[in-house]
Amino acid sequence: MADLLKLLLRVAEKAANVARVCRQEAPLFQLLVQEKTGVDKNKKFVQDFKTLADVVIQEMIRHDVGAQFPEMIDHIQGEESNKFENGLGESVIVTVCGTEKETAALLATVLDGDQMAATLLACAIHQDAMLTLTDTGTDDLHIPLSPSDLGIWIDPIDATSQYIEGREEVVVEGCLCPSGLQCALVLIGVYLRATGEPVIGVINQPFNHKDPTGWKGKHFWGVSCGSVKACSVLRPKDRPAECPGLSVVLSSSEKQAVKEALAPLCGPDRLMYASGAGYKILCVILGLADVYVLSEGSTFKWDSCGPHALLLALGGGMLDLKECLRFGHCEGGHHDQGELTYHQSLSESPGADRWANQGGLVAYLDCQMLHRVIGELKGKF
Ligand code: 2IP
Ligand code: CA
Ligand code: CA
Question: At which positions is Mg(2+) bound (predicted)?
Fold first, then answer.
């Protein structure tokens, strides 16, 4: 299944292109923003946005993966619904059509007849061969998986609020980016339908850095399938020695009790805050933070599945925080209880909440660090 990984890298790069095109055209970007309503609203935000960019990206990924792996088409899920309402109150089902022209015509109906915007978007969606991926790490990889055993979770754009706000932050080498465009990510995760275990993850950061020609992206991938573990990021033991102590990344809206419990463990500079659930997990993957703790059920399967596969590929993991606090952790050096899974919904919850990581989560690479954080949090909130 190295072919699937390569396809996901290409399609995530295409998704990043669409995300960049949508931001480059200011009038287009204004057109794309709609507010979410009803039960699909992420309770975390007072204002949560549903953008056409999101919908288009998700449908494009579904279309491209389904074309090459028809066995997977009914098992490709994402954050967005492909039903979109245009300015005239008409409901349009957004899909990727057979030709660029047809897709442009369909998008024009969503964009209230704005041909220019529709053409730009359709061009980015159908642009296949333009991508140069210089990732040779995937070439010799043998992934013992069959498409009929797999499902996919897509978050077309994570940290939408940062994407829409569009602040361009200056990044300090070796430090995480608390907010801004860098926190916006395309997340694709592949899991085993039978067990819900994540096996392949792709993360694309469309706005990694800016050069004189514009924004440039960066991609990351990981495979964790039995004894096959591979990742585009170096394993922690192969990295240069890091400074002692422990660092934790949190959402700025994290409970005060959690912040207070962790402060003595980390010291003031090493308790950090960043936007985007996916970006915070990426910070752990990259070693910019040791642990990410989230005490609430405000993330969803599409937020965590892809990045989770990279953590597993590097010898770490992502656990249900509530379970972890209740049942202990890391027996015998490795923890396999409470690992988040991706195949079962919470049938009693409405809308998007069916797919929430309800018990919160904790993401880590090093079991010792996980141990210390859990020890500190027990009984504190
Ligand atoms: C959001 C996004 C938010 C995050 C929230 C996710 O996804 O990643 O940034 O909140 O949990 O569901 P926070 O930044 O406080 O961690 P989306 O942007 O796709 O709605
Ligand atoms: Ca998200
Ligand atoms: Ca999203």
Answer: 79, 155, 157-158, 303
Q: Residue 330: is its pLDDT beyond 60?
A: no
Summarize the chain as % helix, strand, coil (round to 5).
Answer: 40, 20, 35
Judged by DSSP in three states, 151 sits in strand
- The residue-averaged pLDDT of 68-81 equals 91
* Ligand 2 centroid to residue 251 C-alpha, Å: 13
Residue that is last in its domain, among 166, 196, 231:
231
- Alpha-helical regions (H) of 254-366: 256-266, 277-285, 301-313, 321-327
Q: Which residues line ligand 1 (CB under 6 A)?
A: 42, 44, 48, 79, 155, 158-160, 251, 253, 275-278, 298-300, 303
Do 127 and 189 belong together in one domain? yes
Tell me, yes or no, if 40 is annotated catalytic: no
The tokens for 46 are 């007072």
Supply the CATH number for residue 258's domain: 3.40.190.80
My answer on whether 314 and 327 are in the same domain is yes
Q: What is the rounded average pLDDT of the residues 119-130?
A: 81
DSSP letter at 356? Answer: B
Q: With respect to residue 373, please indicate whether it lies within any of the assigned structural domains.
A: yes
Q: Looking at the structure, tell me whether residues 330 and 211 fall in a common domain.
A: no
Q: How many domains, in total, are found in the chain? A: 2
158 annotated active-site: yes
Distance CA 71, CA 324 (A): 35
Query: Are residue 209 and residue 246 in the same domain, yes or no?
Result: no
What's the 111 CA to ligand 3 centre distance in angstroms? 20
What residues sit around ligand 3, an ion, with C-beta below 5 angstroms? 79, 155, 157
Q: Which residue range(s) make up the domain with 251?
A: 236-377
Mean pLDDT of the chain: 86
Assigned domain for 295 exists: yes
SS3 158: strand
ipTM of the complex: 0.94
The residue-averaged pLDDT of 311-324 equals: 96
Q: For residues 301-309, give the mean pLDDT.
A: 98
pLDDT-based confidence at residue 377 (cuts at 50, 70, 90): very high
Nearest CA to ligand 1 atom 8: 276
